[in-house]
Sequence to fold (415 residues):
Amino acid sequence: MPPAAKLSFEYRGMVWRVAWRNLWRSPRRTWLTAGSIAFACLLVSVGMAMQDGSYEAMIETATGFYIGQAQISHQSFVEDERLEHTITDATALVRDLDRIPNLIVAPRAQGFALVSVGDRSFGGLAVGVDFDKEQQVVTFFNNLTSGTLPRGVDEVVIGETMARNLGAGVGSELVLLGAAKQGGVAALVLTISGLFSSGQSELDRTLLFTHLEAVQNGFSLGDEIHTIAIRVADLTLLEKQISQLQTILPDNVVVQSWRELMPEVTQGIELDRVSAKLMYGAMLILVSFSVINTFLMVVFERTREFGMLLAIGMRPGLIIRQVLAEALFVWGVGVAVSLLLVVSLVGYFSSAGISIGGMEEIASQFYMPDRIYPAITLQSLVVAPGVLLAGTQIAAFVASWRIRNLQPVAALRVD
Fold:
């Protein structure tokens, strides 16, 4: 190695060693600065982990309640949910879908009908399902409050609100009258086997569930259905799975993901992300300004030292590099402390969960569970440290820029 290059290399190594030693000339200031960085990183990282965990729980709760993670339906049914817009050859299609790994499907058929018990009548939506498959796709039938799920094709479960309006209970007989697909009259006589309470009055007032064959026979649908609810083993692979499904489905049949089926959930998540980004950004900017203030004080307090270094021939750029190295070390100490705390806190609460005390009813309206489990992601670990790395380096550079115009003689006279 040439002597000049060797000297330059040793010079650079000296800068890092001196920067680390200078950091602890004022340990209180170093720890205060590193502490502010650690605190900001901790808040942002834990906040993002909380958000990621809550979004995951929100999506899982919303899709697992009744809609499903995705739905297959006739293209015309998406635009207008009419009885005649059906998927034909349903048995063969469901059989083909059942062969796809990591995919669970639940076929559904539905028809509007007048539901009567004695002299009381109310409008309702009769949904025919395969109860075994449904319980693998959604959690809706976990809300059964009395009775049992239908065992025979002549049994039905209805919402508590509908039962109260009809003056009916478990064991009561319902008469359903509607319009069949071919223009005739759809008539079903069903016995209530159970009641459910979903927590959503609109569903409890209008929905009733019976076996798929009962609706198909009653509404003259034959081997036709209206929708197929879907659940995949890994929600992150849903879009990929949908793309694969599109290649095997008939041209007039489409797949909609939960984002299209439940746009309010997507909009709520995006709105929360934007507001959180604004809050996190403001916090990180404030911390960056505090670092600027710290290094301005460093430069002013060490003016004589920098003047002496200039006087013995040290270049201003090398001194600025030393200050930047000090800022990097402060950032490293703060980030190391924050990451240790983040991993410890999030690791604990990801298994224990955080209870939403006293807000269960409000949480259920927004498809939230009663406990939130934070989720550590690469993004939650690197965003705040990455932003503060840039912030501290810019802060140190701005604060040390005056060194370029520092006159050695004037600097040495500073008290």
Remarks:
- Residues 82-225 form one domain.
- The chain has a mean pLDDT of 84.
- The first helix runs from residue 3 to 23.
